[in-house]
CotS family spore coat protein (Jingyaoa shaoxingensis), 325 residues
Amino acid sequence: MNEKSLKVLEEYDLELISARRGRGSYICETSLGTKILADYNGSEKKAAFTSQLLQHMEEKGYQPVDKAVANKEGRLLCRDRDEQSYILKDWYEGRECDTKNSTDVRQAVSSLARLHGYMVWRPEEKTEYAGEDLRDIWRRHNRELKKIYEFIRKRKQKTGFERLFLKEYDRFAQQAKAAAWELEQSGYEELYQNSLKMGQLCHGNYNQHNVYFLGRRQIFTANFEKCGYDIQINDLYQFVRKIMEKQEWSPQTGDQMLDAYSRERPLADREVAYLKIRLSYPEKFWKVANQYYNCRKSCASWKSMEKLEKLTFQEEKRRIFLGFL
């Protein structure tokens, strides 16, 4: 995003006072208050769905929300000369959640549990924007891991990353197969269908970068663009996994997060079982491998090597943590 992007603000019924870069976007002080102008890669229809959801949540008492602002023509998206889409949303200044601060982490998880209580909505019988069946996702990921393994195995000149990948592949591939089998044997289908039937939605991208502390215990959750109907524990899984990776899979940290969530929204036994299955899948290993395969395979970056070394180093701690669940 560059300064030319600000030209799209002329399509809104407001006066721009000042603008500064922030988070790959522009944070704008306007005659209508603080707004954020950001790139948008989704459809106008999804933008409208998200806006209606946030309006519904606000009417139920959830605040603050980063609702989209309609332009003079009543549209939520604007396009520049290059046909890049932008969205203008309400914005609230705050500090980002500190992943090393246990109080921040607990409050973020408590806030997620409360958020899930508001994210129950069925505007129509047809369920659009439903999450993909996790069984299909894992089948695809497992095929991709095998494909990457075969590709690397046949290479004559191997990088340090490739040698380490081959060394660790069997261990993580077995974990992936075991998790997929456990998911098949669990009550996943019923849990998934019940979530859709009840109209439960996930934020879709709940991480420290989208959680802001505005003041004492007031939290602003941003960027609902990836929201959709699914098992809400998926949000908890994503946040827990990222925090645990940063905190060396500390059982104490994990216990604090689950306790904080349960205090606001008690977890059923099958939800805990589902969370454990999700955490048992080596998603980080798949992500690192997929990144390598889709970039320059001939020269894996030092960053990919660093990530692979870190996750192999943490593996024993991850296994111990899973034993506590």
Summary: Residues 99 and 246 are 7 Å apart (CA to CA). The chain has two domains: 3-93, 102-324.
